[in-house]
Specification:
The chain is α/β, with parallel strands linked by helices and 424 residues long. β9, α9 and β10 form a beta-alpha-beta unit. α3 runs parallel beside α4, α4 crosses α6 and α12 crosses α13. It is globular and about 80 Å long. The two termini are 27 Å apart.
Length: 424
């Protein structure tokens, strides 16, 4: 069954507001208005049956487009206003965090949301903030170019991921890796003062030895969800990433238009899963990113076309051309066997997004037909809707969510059923 996740950048305003209130990212009134708007969109998504909503982790965005330096805090805050909607991130940039601290914070957020948390992970691509916050870890942003910096980033991502999973699932945690040791030093932390009076009596068996040396630790609390919240990977589109997701039972969210390329990546995911003894069905555990624009049935075709074009110019251009293209993400719109730059010189962004398949738009019936054709070919588990709330005006955005939620999602069994959690 396919479900819908809203990917919402906490944006403080459109380009006119960004220019008038520069730097809007440090404007408290704009931030408070954004928080109120996020509550409203979450409540609407909750009522309409969307599966989840997610935000990014990015720091220092004075421009106001991605004001989300602490997405777990947003998850917990917004979760208090919803009943069944799941809250997550796409994603937490693992190399920029201490893995044990992050594992603890995720576990606490999972308890506060009572299992309605999902966890997205990323390696990080924005040098402006990651090079600063990662300096103590000796890690920078990466362009997946196999450079020394890229290899260091990949090492910390993989190691932090492994440590976090062990922290969530093992009562007594020890680890001896290339960059991280538990305990430190690995021979033990000597002369723990309450070893005999408290830890030796009530802590995890084996946490301290008879000499009062700490030999391992236990991360508390363990997650509310057993063994841990559902894991996602942010916007991957490389064969290596899809294989890793399959191996680790992590749901990829693929930013790719071509159905041919998507099929190949989904098959690689299956191969990775099979190498670890899992055999998901084709499309199971897969998320795909898309942008949707839906209008009422009966809207004249020329009006639909004009509205999509206008919407792309106002709400998509700042993100795709102003941001994504600058970091190479427009590659996801490359057509099969296409060479040269994308978009083509002079090509309208709406034409590129529609022709590549990244934008699904039209009347209710037209969008249904496009979704049906997509899912018949590629029966994925999640659509990740790149929904630029904050760029899109409030009433227009809510109306779009309502049309999609009431007229389209029921046709495909997209119910956003409440999470079933094994808490213990």
């Amino acid at each position: 069954m396919t479900e819908v996740i809203l990917q919402v950048y906490p944006t403080l305003g459109d380009e006119a507001a960004m220019a008038a209130q520069r730097p809007i990212g440090r404007n408290n009134d704009a931030y408070q208005k954004m928080l109120a708007g996020l509550i409203e969109v979450c409540q609407a998504a909750d009522d309409l049956g969307y599966w989840g909503i997610t935000h990014v982790e990015h720091h220092m965005h004075t421009e106001g487009m991605e004001i989300s330096p602490a997405p777990l805090m947003l998850n917990v805050h917004l979760g208090h206003y919803t009943k069944r909607l799941r809250h997550g991130q796409l994603g937490l940039v693992l190399p920029a965090h201490d893995p044990l601290r992050l594992a603890e914070e995720i576990a606490i957020a999972d308890h506060m949301l009572q299992g309605r948390l999902f966890v997205g992970m990323a390696r990080g691509y924005q040098a402006r903030w990651q090079n600063i916050l990662g300096q103590r870890f000796g890690v920078t942003s990466t362009a997946s170019d196999q450079s020394d910096a890229d290899q260091r980033n990949r090492l910390l991502f993989s190691e932090n991921f492994a440590i976090m999973k062990k922290a969530w699932t093992e009562d007594l945690l020890t680890y001896d890796g290339p960059t991280y040791k538990i305990p430190f030093p690995t021979t033990g932390i000597e002369n723990w003062p309450p070893a005999k009076t408290i830890t030796g009596k009530y802590g995890v068996p084996g946490e301290v030895d008879e000499n009062g040396t700490v030999k391992g630790v236990g991360i508390v609390p363990k997650p509310y969800t057993s063994p841990h919240p559902q894991l996602f990977q942010a916007f991957g589109a490389s064969p290596g990433t899809l294989r890793w997701c399959g191996e680790e039972n992590v749901t990829p969210t693929i930013l790719m238009g071509s159905l041919t390329k998507l099929r190949a990546l989904m098959e690689i995911y299956q191969e990775g899963a099979a190498s670890r003894g899992r055999h998901p069905g084709f499309g199971e555990g897969i998320g795909v990113c898309r942008t949707f624009y839906v209008f009422p049935n009966g809207t004249p075709q020329d009006e639909v076309d004009a509205k999509i074009r206008r919407s792309v110019e106002l709400y998509e251009e700042p993100v795709w051309r102003g941001w994504y293209e600058q970091f190479g993400f427009m590659e996801g719109s490359r057509l099969d066997d296409e060479e040269g730059p994308v978009p083509k010189p002079g090509e309208h962004l709406a034409d590129r997004l529609i022709n590549s398949g990244l934008l699904i738009g039209g009347t209710v019936d037209q969008v249904k037909q496009q979704i049906d054709a997509f899912l018949t070919d590629l029966p994925i588990e999640y659509f990740v809707w790149l929904f630029h709330w904050g760029m899109i005006p409030r009433d227009e955005g809510l109306r779009m969510l309502e049309l999609f939620g009431e007229k389209i999602m029921p046709e495909f069994g997209m119910t956003g059923a409440p999470a079933t959690v094994a808490g213990s």
